[in-house]
Amino acid sequence: MSSIFLLISKKKCDIIKYNDLMEAKIELKIKVLGVSFDAVNKKEASAQILSAIQNKNEIPLTAVTPNPIMVMNSQNNEALFSALSSADLSLADGVGIISAAKRMGIPLPERVTGIDTAYSVLQKLAEVAGSVYLFGAKPGVAELAAEKLIDQFPSLNIVGTHHGYFDKDEEIISDIKQKSPDLLIVCLGSPRQEIWAHENKGKLSGVGVIMCLGGVLDVWSGNIKRAPSLFIKLHLEWLWRMLLEPKRMKELPKMLKFRILTGKSRQNQKSFK
Ligand code: UDP
Q1: Is the pTM of this model over 0.85?
Q2: CA-214 nearest atom, ligand 1
Q3: Each residue of 23-46: pLDDT tens digit?
Q4: How many domains does the chain have?
Q5: What lines the ligand 1 site, CB under 6 Å?
Q6: Is 189 part of any domain?
């Protein structure tokens, strides 16, 4: 028993080292069309999340991963804009965001994908038998994702799952609150997930971090294949998603508009309001 405790304590120390790393860093946020992004690399993003898990606040830390489509949608969706603006950690998941920041003359360190960040956090959480709740996607998907994750991280504590097709969420919220996971993964698609997290984080004390992650549960469950590494390397994950789901083609004009709006200006500030 005591050796297990020692092992857990040692692993918690690893997380503490990450805290030190974060404290030494000055936070820098940049704005693309008014939407904030944290200038963090992959390691720093995971460290910030692990630190928030270790030092749980009354209100969980929220992490979002806006891509150019979400930034464009937020320009005329006040609820989405305000949800993105008030998120604690905003990761530049898309190459479009990285390029826009470069054009502004304030480059972001690197692309930080939500799926890889969450995976590395789960890896660390598993080392300390941390807990996670998987919320979203079609019925059965979160459970399948849970099974696959447990195969990879047997000591990860998956305390709950719930699908994302609901009318009323009171019972889901009380289930999450009662289970108080270190990490709550929310995959309701955008803008629903960001708005849900923004509106409900105040009711979720006991949860460490809420990450809004789009289609991640579909990928972890094996229902949707992530882009092959060549696509990822060439920054063409968006093209892969369009090939898998041709209905996403309708997003192309928005991507083009994003490129134009962020093309010339150093201060391509928000046009909303
Ligand atoms: N989804 C959900 N509830 C909804 C709408 C979507 O749980 O009301 C899920 C959907 O099943 C999928 C995930 O949200 O697993 C992401 O959906 P999508 O790929 O459309 O979102 P995006 O990645 O574009 O934000």
Answers
A1: yes
A2: 23
A3: 445 578 999 999 999 999 999 999
A4: 1
A5: 136-138, 164-165, 187-190, 192, 214-215, 217-218
A6: yes
